[in-house]
Sequence to fold (308 residues):
Amino acid sequence: MNSFIFRNSEELLKLCKEHDSPIWEIMLRYEMQISSKKREPIMSKLLERLDVIFNGINASIEKPEVSPSKMAGESTAFLVKHINEFDKYADSLLLNEAAIRAMLGAIATGENNARMGVILAFPTAGAAGVLPGVMYGAKYKFSLSKKELINMMLTASAIGVIIANTATLSGAAGGCQAEVGSASAMAAAALTEVRGASPETTLQAAALALKNMIGLACDPIGGLVEVPCIKRNGIAAVFSMSASDMAFMGIKSFVPFDEVVRAMREVGDMMSPRIKETALGGLATTPTGQKVAKRMGLLKIGENPCTK
Ligand code: SF4
Fold:
């Protein structure tokens, strides 16, 4: 029996070549193999998850709500206003409508999470907006079907599997490079493959995206997944589009994807625990960050939330 298990991009590309298949198909076969499930139940579960993604975005768009910390919940409405009247703002904005929509999808997801709405942690709650944002923008730009959006989720998952095998997807273990950085690589790859690029080009997009996120600190104010997380997801969604466009135009990452992932792990190991989700450094300990944490009674200044 054929095995579809891969641990790195080299093995993934080999499987794509052997089976003359795109990455999403290999990922589906991988899932079938490890879960011992047939194609249909996996696809129907993915369809349910797709609804969770888009319902979460729509919930924030239809009923914006400020989070209990008051740090989040107002950005979605600004983006909706500009999308609704895009023709009016097009001359003064630099990004096109698909990119602004990607920002909207990402930020709406994060704001929905901040007010305890249901989201899909893809790959984590903190980084849950990047892929949905890119899917939201791409759906508009390329009129993608549900099947194509599910393919995007599968391609993204393959990249996530490789990163999880080699490094980590956790901000507490590897900083935000491991969360939003990984989500950006996943989204860039998904967007590239759904546009018809080869597996090689798809992995170039992932490498370009992750490479540019190396060293990113995890420094959430008060330990809440709001600031900088939500807007960081919005910018990362657009940034993933840039990496995808670069790869699509033929630009290659000088360092191959597997090496980028190993470098990300190494940098994560070198990072101080103060910038690994402990809220003891970076934006969390700015005067503004400390003021919010004190107001919320979340942390005393300098207190480690992990030992609280
Ligand atoms: S800053 Fe930390 S909590 Fe926020 S998204 Fe990044 S890794 Fe997650």
